[in-house]
Amino acid sequence: MRRILAATLVAIVALPLVxxxxxxxxxxxxxxxxxxxxxxxxxxxxxxxxxxIDDPQVEGVACHFTVPEKGGWAGAFGLAxxxxxxxxACRQIGPIRxxxxxxxxxxxxxxxxxxxxxxxxxxxxxxxxxxxxxxxxYSDKLIDGSPQNSTSTVPIMPWGQxxxxxxxxxxxx
Length: 173
Known about the structure:
By secondary structure, this protein is mainly β. It has two helices and eight strands; from the N terminus they run αβββαβββββ. Strands 1-2-3-4 form a four-stranded antiparallel beta sheet, with no helix packed on it. Strands 5-6-7-8 form a four-stranded antiparallel beta sheet, with no helix packed on it. A hairpin with a 7-residue loop joins strand 7 and strand 8 (149-155). It starts with a helix and ends in an 18-residue tail after the last strand. The model is unreliable at 3-25 (pLDDT under 50).
């Protein structure tokens, strides 16, 4: 009971610090589909959900990720702590244009995965030597993160009649 009270107090104190950051990650992923993995008779099933997002700073790149979603009554009311597993695939879907400068490991997407302090993140980097964008998905938690992750790469290639190719190292350092 004391842990719950302490966690609630921390959440109330931390909320004003977190709210100014939220609009930067307001991109909502597109749900592509869900598949049930565990049948539950009287409550929602556990599922795997696949989502799609566009990189907000790199036009021409889309990422798809799959995450587990807990069912049961706790999952139905958003109180279940989700699993840390996730898979990721990112691909070039058009001519690549990088719209701004960024740093290695900048956040492309972030979403909460539990009622308290657990989130899944997709971050972007650049392998300048190979001219490849590198994306990684992982989950973290305020106290103890998870080493489970998935990585996807997008080699920057000419698209259609395009002859010049952008160099990711010119924009991501």
